[in-house]
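Figure 3 (text version): structure tokens given as input.
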């Protein structure tokens, strides 16, 4: 059996020596982090060695894999030990400082901020709860039946072309609207009932100041023996007055949605520009906020209800757009952009 040292061993040893020396020399956590990235990052020296396994002869791969994996583990352990040592040294230095008074109160950590989407959603839930609505939660991963078929949108229906959908390999999809919860609610609750179901929805589309691939909606549904468009409009006026804390100019115009008949678009005057026009309202002075209408008989049947006995109305509120109008946000992409500075601009009393 050959005891000859493999050619790659020199690279393993050299990388180990360089990495361990850099770790030992690090005097603060920032420097140690740079060393960690240089060694274990995607383009790090240790990572580069582990990627060379496939370039070797099959007879060497097992030994090389064990050696490179062992090196990675050794470097990880050395970094963890050095990090603990630096932290302990920092504490020791503070305790050794004669001006340090351990009886003084510590620095108060900065408080968190409620995201404006969460704040407005909670306010809406409170408004609708006061009107007798239940608050329900449904899956973001939906079946084709609940998202399309049950809402009077069969596979051949041209309305399918209006939906840009994220399909999953399982045949399910990311829901394109919170309307997908309508039939679920009809099966879950005994009529008459009224309920809302807020949540995230997904559309496979290009993004701009007023469009995002992931955004929030709030669906509302009321089922009773006798309902009308007047009932719907009264609830919507109550909602908008509560959320904007003032009267808001609205307009109602005909709209087509397969799951309601008749269907309407309820628009509000743009609260960002005040009417002259901007990128949010596409320079029209109006923002589409609230598609609504009377529930289509086919949807009632899909929910197990007799349309000769039960009626209903439904609406789909653009929750993200409502937040933009409420706070004058000019770009919807800011809401889910992950920038903490944006959220910090909203305090508890906003």
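Below: residues designed for each position.
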């Amino acid at each position: 059996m050959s005891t000859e040292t493999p050619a790659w061993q020199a690279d393993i040893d050299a990388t180990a020596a360089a990495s361990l020396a850099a770790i030992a020399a690090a005097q603060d956590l920032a420097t140690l982090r740079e060393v960690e990235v240089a060694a274990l990052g995607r383009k790090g020296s240790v990572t580069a060695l582990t990627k060379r396994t496939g370039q070797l002869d099959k007879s060497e791969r097992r030994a090389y894999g064990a050696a490179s994996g062992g090196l990675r583990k050794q470097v990880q352990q050395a970094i963890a030990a050095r990090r603990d040592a630096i932290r302990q040294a920092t504490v020791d230095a503070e305790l050794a400082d004669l001006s340090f008074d351990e009886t003084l109160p510590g620095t108060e950590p900065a408080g968190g901020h409620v995201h404006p989407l969460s704040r407005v959603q909670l306010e809406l839930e409170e408004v609708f709860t006061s009107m007798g609505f239940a608050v329900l939660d449904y899956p973001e991963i939906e079946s084709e039946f609940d998202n399309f078929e049950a809402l009077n949108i069969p596979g051949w229906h041209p309305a399918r072309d209006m939906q840009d959908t994220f399909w999953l390999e399982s045949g399910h999809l990311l829901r394109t609207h919170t309307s997908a919860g309508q039939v679920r609610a009809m099966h879950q609750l005994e009529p008459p009932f009224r309920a809302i179901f807020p949540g995230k929805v997904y559309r496979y589309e290009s993004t701009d100041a007023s469009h995002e691939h992931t955004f929030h909606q709030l669906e509302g549904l009321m089922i009773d023996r006798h309902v009308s468009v007047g009932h719907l409009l009264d609830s919507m006026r109550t909602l908008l007055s509560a959320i904007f804390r003032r009267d808001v100019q609205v307009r109602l115009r005909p709209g087509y949605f397969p799951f309601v008949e008749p269907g309407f678009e309820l628009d509000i005057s743009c609260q960002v520009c005040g009417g002259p026009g901007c990128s949010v309202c596409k320079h029209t002075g109006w923002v589409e906020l609230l598609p609504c209408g009377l529930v289509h008989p086919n949807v009632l049947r899909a929910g197990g209800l007799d349309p000769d006995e039960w009626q209903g109305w439904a609406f789909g509120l653009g929750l993200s757009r409502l937040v933009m109008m409420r706070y004058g946000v000019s770009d919807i992409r800011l809401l889910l952009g992950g920038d903490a500075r944006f959220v910090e601009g909203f305090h508890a009393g906003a």
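Strands lie at 134-135, 141-142, 173-174, 193-202, 214-224, 250-254, 260-269, 286-295, 311-318.
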